[in-house]
Amino acid sequence: MGDSPIPEGISSLLDTDLYKLTMQCAVLKYFPDVEVTYGFTNRTPDMKLSRQAYKWLLEQMERLENITITPDEIDFLQKSCPYFNDAYLSYLRNFRLKPSQQLQIKFTPDDSTNDDDTAVGVLEYAVSGLWVETILYEIPLLALTSEAYFKFCDTDWNHNGQEEKAYAKGMTLLEHGCIFSEFGSRRRRDYHTHDLVMKGLCRAAEDAQQKGFPGKFSGTSNVHFAMKYSVAPVGTVAHEWYMGIAAYTNDYENANEMGLRYWLGCFGEGVLGVALTDTFGTPAFLEAFSKPIPDYTTPSRGLEATFPSSAATTEINTPESLADIKPPISAPSHHTPKQAPQKTYAQVFTGIRQDSGDPKNFVKLVREFYDKQGITEKKVIVFSDSLKVDNCLEYKAISEQAGFQPTFGVGTFFTNDFTKLSTNAKSIPLNIVIKIASAGGRPAVKLSDNLGKNTGDKQLVQEVKRRLGYVESVWEDGNEATRWGKKGD
């Protein structure tokens, strides 16, 4: 008998990043009726898909409609993610993606007269529907698009050595004391590559522990692989959370603070405590981060967990008792303390995530911020922007010197690091993203800390920049079209 066929496509609802589930849980509680759209961007536009790849993707979209969560997967979430309330887990048990109703794929060949399967062209996705339902399309669509490209368009590679390569990278990071997780779901070469990488990293973690290396493999953002390999699912929140709130409310001035407040209201203090800073520029975020937490926000249990506000009230002025959140938009942005001064978001959150711009400038900026706030406890910085091993070692030294605990979410460098068989040159990954494009009928935008990552309606981007006093910045190493190399390298 021959070897089992290599699995392809998506077969589990949990084959996604944890932050999609945490955000879905929060959206179910506060924004269950909000309609959204999503847009697809290929930041490497010269890397085009073929009609054959497009046809395969259509087949994979049909398969998504048949995926359901299993009892074993629910059990895993209950044990590994205790912050998910009963109402959300009940919702997941009956959840189905509906691509035939919510997803459109369009293929436009470069040569309109060429109807051959090898014809290449521009691929477009249009996703629309309830936010709470469509939020789970992003990771599967990106993973499938990457898989289609390397299945039909760039086939000059194979899986040989992928487990060993991941093992070597993991050992280097662990030997140098890095705390890191695997973040490569979105742009993986294919499912099998992801599986091989996880095998290599888990083996490295075991060997490093025996050798007494100081680093730690903390888990994976992919919930399916966390379950398969008995490691922790890691992650908190994505730009989408702040972008959706800002678009729905049209209150960009308070969107960061609302996002933080609703997050605490859903999950409470002490869990999922890493905040993402750069949706509308880190300076604007830090202004919100310094504010005191209002007196109305605590996670509720049972059926009430899905309500915008519960019947509970409190007179106690601590984040642990954060009472009930008011419905979106009408919740006050400020409060009057009744007793001792309230803690700020910066005090309560464990740390922050750096995902765009110059990491060195970021470390300096947030060090100055925490010092100004009088916060002396060691905070975490999660680095997650296009990391390689050398980056991790460099940023570790910089952030430790500044008094932070660095951790690293390494993605594409783990799950899409290949060379061409014919030339031994770099096989360049696709740099593709899917971002929320509108919420409640209003366009959504992201400003980032680097010009190359700005997304959304150009006119609105300029308007939001004016409203927030956003200062434009360009990081010389942040060219999104060549982050992972360019053809000919």
UniProtKB/TrEMBL annotation:
InterPro entries: N/Namide_PRibTrfase (IPR041525), NAPRTase_N (IPR040727), Nic_PRibTrfase-Fam (IPR007229), Nicotinate_pribotase-like_C (IPR036068). Signal peptide: none annotated. GO terms for molecular function: nicotinate phosphoribosyltransferase activity. GO terms for biological process: NAD+ biosynthetic process via the salvage pathway. Residues 14-145 form the Nicotinate phosphoribosyltransferase N-terminal domain. Keywords: Ligase, Phosphoprotein, Pyridine nucleotide biosynthesis. It catalyses: 5-phospho-alpha-D-ribose 1-diphosphate + nicotinate + ATP + H2O = nicotinate beta-D-ribonucleotide + ADP + phosphate + diphosphate. The keyword Ligase applies. It comes from the Eukaryota. Residues 180-291, 342-469 form the Nicotinate/nicotinamide phosphoribosyltransferase domain. One of its GO terms (cellular component) is cytosol. This is nicotinate phosphoribosyltransferase. It comes from Talaromyces amestolkiae.
